[in-house]
Design goal:
Elements: H1 4-20, E1 27-28, E2 39-40, E3 51-54, H2 57-65, E4 75-79, E5 89-90, H3 94-102, E6 108-111, E7 114-119, E8 133-135, E9 138-142, E10 150-156, E11 159-172, H4 180-183, E12 195-203, E13 211-214, E14 218-223, E15 231-235, E16 238-243, E17 248-253, E18 258-261, H5 292-300, H6 309-316
Parallel strand pairs: 1-2, 3-4, 4-5
Antiparallel strand pairs: 6-18, 7-8, 7-17, 9-11, 9-15, 10-11, 10-14, 11-12, 12-13, 14-17, 15-16
Length: 317
């Protein structure tokens, strides 16, 4: 459900596009609240050149899922006040950001996606899965509501790595390394790298540590025949499958990444960068490169001390 500020922002964005770029057609996914000035998007009929999102990180994940069977157009993401790793621009900067894109000044960070293929006990591709599932953050296998642990055999490039007894397993992209995988104890991986991150969820063995594989690797997760629980499958937070003992999923790098437009695409023509004025809101204050270091400090409070800012303020009074 869209809030009034989001509706106002969408209307302002559409008015600007129609006034400044009258030759541009704007499409919207088919849903009841299509804004005035946008046409219904039919994937089989309309080729998209640019995706614009307004909202949080989940909005970008949803946009990625709309292009699950092929290439993703460049994605221009605007924050509506929510902080997130995938939100380089604040909505107040939409005119400047669009201007840079249409002038060909945009810089792109290709965020890797995962292609997931599901197989039954006979190693045949599961029905109704004509295309590989594409995920931007992670695929997670978990025991769901079962009181029993999952037993999952892990194969890397066809070679058996280990039998995992745990609440589940996560295979994430570098982009997803700061999401569910991080909460489960996984490493933080820079999004410009191409890698697969394997992270256990509450493993029975204390020596089962997260692993990082090159993007050329293929990881197969097979529910063990002795597993007392099936494995629920969630991809980018969406429940998709339930794997029974003997069934499996193979995960590898997708040939279709998400081209994300960087905040460095906004040229610093007004000279405000470095003045301190542009650092007060998320997405503003572009530098010469995508400021991932600033993101992990601001969003994750990386290596922050245990004493909170509130306690520090209280100690000064």
């Amino acid at each position: 459900m869209r809030t009034p500020p989001v509706i106002l922002a969408i209307n302002a964005l559409l008015e600007h596009i129609h006034a400044t770029y009258p030759e541009v057609r704007v499409f919207h996914e088919d849903r009841p609240d299509i804004p005035h000035g946008a046409e219904v998007w039919h994937p089989s009929k309309h080729q998209i050149d640019l995706v614009v999102t307004l909202g949080g990180d989940g909005t970008i994940l949803h946009a990625s899922s709309l292009f699950s069977s092929g290439a993703v157009p460049p994605v221009l993401s605007f924050s509506m006040g929510t902080l997130g790793f995938l939100l380089p621009f604040h909505i107040d900067d939409f005119a400047k950001a669009l201007g840079s894109v249409f002038q060909g000044k945009a810089t792109i960070l290709n965020r890797m996606r995962l292609a997931c293929t599901f197989f039954n006990q006979n190693l045949a591709k599961k029905k109704n899965d004509n295309n590989d599932w594409q995920v931007m953050n992670e695929i997670a296998l978990h025991r769901g509501s079962s009181p029993h642990l999952n037993t999952i055999d892990i194969y890397v490039d066809g070679q058996h790595l280990t039998e995992a007894v745990s609440d589940g397993l996560i295979v994430s992209t570098p982009t997803g390394s700061t999401a569910y995988s991080l909460s489960a104890g996984g490493p933080i991986v820079h999004p410009s790298l191409s890698a697969l991150v394997l992270t256990p969820i509450c493993p029975r063995s204390l020596s089962f540590r997260p692993l990082v594989f090159p993007s050329s690797s293929s990881i197969t997760l097979r529910i063990g025949d002795r597993s007392r629980a099936p494995a629920g499958v969630s991809m980018d937070g969406r429940t998709s499958h339930v794997l029974q003992p003997g069934e499996s999923v193979t995960v590898q790098a997708s040939p279709y990444p998400v081209p994300s437009i960087n905040r460095s695409s906004i040229s610093d023509e007004d000279g405000s960068h470095g003045s301190g004025l542009s650092s007060s809101k998320e997405g503003a204050g572009p530098g010469k490169e995508d400021d991932w270091v600033r993101d992990i400090n601001n969003l994750l409070q990386y290596n922050a001390t245990f004493r909170s800012k509130a306690l520090l303020r209280h100690s000064r009074t």
